[in-house]
Amino acid sequence: MTHDATPALVTHAGLMITAFLLASATVIVARYQRKRRWWLKIHRQSGALAAIIALPGLIAAITYVAISEQPQFDTFHAYWGVGTIATLALTPFLGWLQFTVGKTMREKIRTVHRWIGRLALLLLITGIVTGLIYAGAI
After folding, report:
1. Taking the model in full, what pTM does it have?
2. Taking residues 98-108, what's their average pLDDT?
């Protein structure tokens, strides 16, 4: 007996779009608001929240596939999504790590953090597009 998987799909899409918007805000704040006192606090919070919100997005996707009785991780989009969420989780960790290491490693970690953050945003955009293609919306 199959059940309606639409709510799980809508939840997945909504959470991943929210994660994208938060990740975008994170990059914009870091790029254009650095002279403001509050920039780092907002940057940290929005980046962490993007990663946190993406996790239930993954759970909603797994739920959707299970309810629709399709095989799990059977599409490019599914693997791309897991990589995207891993990258989203790695980015705030690297941001935190740069404040806990010695001066010699700080700049190296900061550089990696910046590039991984940009990659996460690109992966999110690509994931949204491939998801829309997979769902037949575009």
Report:
1. 0.91
2. 94
